[in-house]
Amino acid sequence: MSPRLGIGRSDRIFGSAGWLAAALLLAACAPSLPARRPDGPPIQSWLAPSPPPEAAASSLPPREAPPGPVLAPGDLLSIGVFRQPELHLEGRISPAGRVTFPLLGPVTAAGRTPEDLERFLRDELSRDFLKDPQVSVAVKEYAPRRVYVVGAVSRPGGYDLAPAGRLTLLQAISGAAGFTDRAYKESARIVRRRGPGERAVLSVSIREIERELARGNAEADVELWPDDLVLIPSGARTAYVLGAVHRPGPFEIPVDGTVTVSMAVSQGGSYTKFAATSSILVLRRTPGGEERSMGVDLDAVLDGRLDLDLPLEPGDVVWVPERGIF
Predict the structure, then answer these.
(1) Most exposed of 6, 112, 115, 151 (fewest Cβ within 10 Å)?
(2) Which helix (H) or strand (E) holds 90?
(3) Which domains does the chain have, with CATH numbers?
(4) What is the pLDDT of residues 209-238, one digit of tens each?
């Protein structure tokens, strides 16, 4: 049962719908206000758009073993055509990912396996120049491979990967010195080269990987491919406390912590003497766009009913109304 709301002069003017609109309007203006930790100086809240609702649905991508070593810029190739010595080529793949082959000119090599490049050259030569050419591609020297980790990690950058080596997502993040406190682990992205000029974007829930590993599923960690780009987004984990508190404004919800209504009121410097503490409202917009209003009786919470102390979610607005004055 929702607690009784204290109705004052402003309540009579605006009504319950008016309170909702007013609270949301104040929330939109809140980024200019500083937040405080209960035991520290003011801190500047960093506000960003919340991750999209569909991000929460992401989990583990289909398990894919990396292909055989894929050619990359800097690889030293030796290409030959049987009984055609004038078509022999030895050279490195250019930074643009190409080699210049006799008769054919610039040919894209990066992103292909040696076998793929053999087939491509054979098809191109047989189309206009030779009958049933026998092409061989050998890698005399591999250039260093890298994966890249960017976003909400402590040390973003590129990390070496042996051409035939193995590196998982969590190993790469560990090499990047771990997550920052703003990491949105539910919605990581891996941008992967699948072929010449072709990229795929994989959605990964790192929280789901961690849960699976905790259950003993050692295969849950995603294996990275050379040239993978891992993006760990920064999530806006901000809620707001407004109304009859001493310091209304935004405050941050820890990534791995819980903030309840009573804690939010504390973040706001506690309630004023005019606060209707039995009639606090939590305004929430669900991922589906539905607006919800939930009542919380702070008096009952402070009397020991901790089960009524509602945990907050990013984007929530905690509204502390004033008591009615008659």
Answers:
(1) 115
(2) strand 89-92
(3) 9-50+237-320 (3.10.560.10), 55-68+144-232 (3.10.560.10), 76-141 (3.30.1950.10)
(4) 999 999 999 889 999 988 899 999 887 678
| CA torsion, ordered 294, 298, 300, 305, to nearest 10 deg | 80
Cα–Cα dist 235/175, whole Å:
21
Give the alpha-carbon dihedral of 159, 160, 163, 165, to 10 degrees.
Answer: -80
Helices (H) and strands (E) in the chain, counts: 6, 17
Question: Any residues with CB less than 8 A from the CB of 7 and at least 6 apart, and which?
Answer: 324
Whose CA is closest to 207, among 252, 167, 241, 173?
Answer: 173
Q: How far is CA 259 from the centre of its chain?
A: 22
Amino acid at 143: A
Q: What is the pLDDT of residues 169-209, one digit of tens each?
A: 999 999 999 998 778 888 899 998 776 667 788 889 999 99
Residue 91 has pLDDT above 80, yes or no: yes
Q: Which residues of 212-225 are buried (b: 16+ CB within 10 A; e: fewer)?
A: beeeeeeebbbebb
134 contacts: CB under 8 Å, gap ≥ 6: 81, 82, 122
